[in-house]
Design brief:
By secondary structure, the chain is α+β, with helices and mostly antiparallel strands. Helices cover 37% and strands 23% of the residues. The longest helix has 22 residues, at 85-106.
Length: 244
């Protein structure tokens, strides 16, 4: 009721206008957009990092390969998103340029935290500048740094970011997070992580055993390069958790 009153009074018409109780309503609307987006899960595993995303293809005429949900930032860093994917592409493009500039300037691969801080800075600027709107997207950024440290970060439209062992964004976030809290373990392998992610998705959202529905990618400690999970592997796991 109070939020409705604030809308009627115009506190949501400008990104720079605080409501009387200290809220930026446009930013809150952006976070709601993320919660309506397709699900994405990230995990730090014993042997690397893993991202699993629901591509949510609703039109049978769409070519599945044209729907990209997991993006390569650099060989050793990848990202996925929930929310407005066109917004995500702008942030991913920025991150890719940042990674290449770092390599040219310093002749060394960029670390994951530097990429995340740069993206988060842009997200934050769009919460305090008139004439802009917040990015309607959250990103999961996973990578393995030069030191061999496995990293997983989550950003949101406010520009804040946190590091996680496992996290989820998008549709069904509270329910899937509850499953991850109960079942995630530090010694999970990438294969175990894939099974847990698809199991959690299957319990919460309507997942049909379609090889084009799920996108998954991983980076191992051994080679530090992003690799797409084979469709055959994804189908095997999907079949195990098919809803009866």
């Amino acid at each position: 009721m109070q939020a409705m009153q604030h809308q009627m009074m115009g506190y949501d018409r400008a990104i720079t206008m605080f409501s009387p109780d200290g809220r930026l309503l446009q930013v809150e609307y952006a976070k709601k957009t993320v919660r309506q987006g397709s699900t994405a899960i990230g995990m730090v595993c014993k042997d690397g990092v893993l991202l699993v995303a629901d591509k949510r293809i609703v039109d049978k005429l769409i070519i599945p390969e044209s729907v990209e949900k997991i993006f390569e930032i650099d060989n050793h860093i990848m990202a996925t998103a929930a929310g407005i994917l066109s917004d995500a592409r702008v942030l991913v493009d920025r991150a890719q340029v940042k990674a290449q500039q770092h390599m040219v300037n310093y002749d060394t691969p960029i670390d994951t935290m530097t990429v995340v801080k740069d993206v988060a800075a842009l997200l934050q600027i769009c919460t305090q500048s008139g004439g802009l709107r917040p990015f309607g997207v959250s990103l999961l950024v996973a990578g393995i740094d030069n030191s061999g440290t496995k990293r997983l970060y989550e950003t949101d439209p406010t520009g804040i970011f946190f590091e996680y062992k496992a996290t989820v964004i998008g549709e069904g976030e509270p329910e899937i997070e509850e499953i991850l809290v109960k079942e995630y373990k530090d010694d999970l392998t990438i294969d175990d992580g894939l099974k847990l992610a698809i199991k959690a998705m299957s319990k919460v959202i309507d997942l049909k055993p379609d090889e084009n529905r799920i996108d998954a990618a991983y980076i191992t400690l051994k080679d530090k390069k992003m690799t797409k999970m084979p469709k055959e592997k994804i189908m095997q796991v999907l079949a195990q958790f098919k809803k009866k």
